[in-house]
Write a structure and sequence with these properties.
This protein is α+β, with helices and mostly antiparallel strands. It has one domain: Maf protein (Alpha-Beta Complex), CATH 3.90.950. The protein has five helices and eight strands, in the order βαβαββαββββαα. Strands 1, 2, 3, 4, 5, 6, 7 and 8 form an eight-stranded mixed β-sheet that branches. A hairpin with a 5-residue loop joins strand 5 and strand 6. Helix 4 packs across helix 5. The radius of gyration is 17 Å and the shape is globular. 38% of the residues are buried. Bound molecules: inosine 5'-triphosphate (ITT).
Length: 198
């Protein structure tokens, strides 16, 4: 069975990734599974650049096929912040209850379409021979008026999806994974992986 490493230290992401890729005939290993805690400088200027930086760094460290996900929340009213800085926004260790309330407070004068936002995900595949392939996914929505839901992670409790009239933190786990930025990007990446795995 082909071994693929997913270069993330975010457990919330990893749970979703395992669910989305569960029908693939691969041995999927996280950095935690390998006991790795690499200090990767995510100094790219886009989700794509950062996804490639992470995948390449771990591929060079292990010599294996490596996937990485760079993702984040773009809030139009905040000029697309926090964007690629979503994890570092207000400090890496600041609880999301504070980050989420901060965004809601910032948007207190924004109504209707002014509250538009999206989650973006770019997944990069780094092959030991040097090939790099990326796929991306986006889910459009709005910043909710209040924090709602306990599912997911990060900014899910403030990301309202009008089609389902709830936040992504209120959607059942598998449902979020079917429609999310990460689900879209990884489902596109599955087609690429099929060409590489036996
Ligand atoms: P790795 O780099 O180790 O994968 P990270 O959390 O630092 O973990 P990113 O740099 O890609 O990863 O930042 C992604 C951040 O964007 C994440 O920490 C959340 O704040 C936010 N985010 C991304 N996808 C999300 C989702 O599905 N639900 C909620 N928040 C999300």
């Amino acid at each position: 069975m082909n071994k693929i490493i997913f270069a993330t230290s975010n457990e919330g992401k990893m749970d979703e990734i395992r669910d989305i890729l569960k029908d693939m005939n691969i041995e999927l290993l996280s950095l935690k599974d390998l006991g790795l805690n690499p200090d990767i400088n995510e100094n790219g200027k886009s989700f794509e650049e950062n996804a490639i930086i992470k995948a390449k760094a771990v591929m060079e460290m292990t010599g294996e096929m490596v996937l990485a996900d760079d993702s984040g929340l773009e809030v139009d009213y905040l000029d697309k912040a926090p964007g690629i800085y979503s994890a570092r926004f207000l400090g890496e260790d600041t609880p999301y209850s504070i980050k989420n309330q901060y965004i809601i407070d910032k948007l207190k004068n924004a109504q209707g379409n002014d509250r538009s936002a999206r989650f973006v995900c770019v997944v990069a595949l780094a092959m030991p021979k040097g090939d790099i392939i990326t796929r991306s996914g986006i889910i459009e929505g709005y910043i909710a008026n209040k924090i709602s839901g306990v599912g997911g992670f990060g900014y899910d409790p403030i990301f309202y999806v009008p089609e389902y009239k709830c936040t992504t933190a209120e959607l059942p786990f598998e449902h979020k994974n079917k429609i999310s930025h990460r689900g879209i990007a990884l489902n596109a990446m599955k087609k690429v992986l099929m060409q590489y795995i036996q």
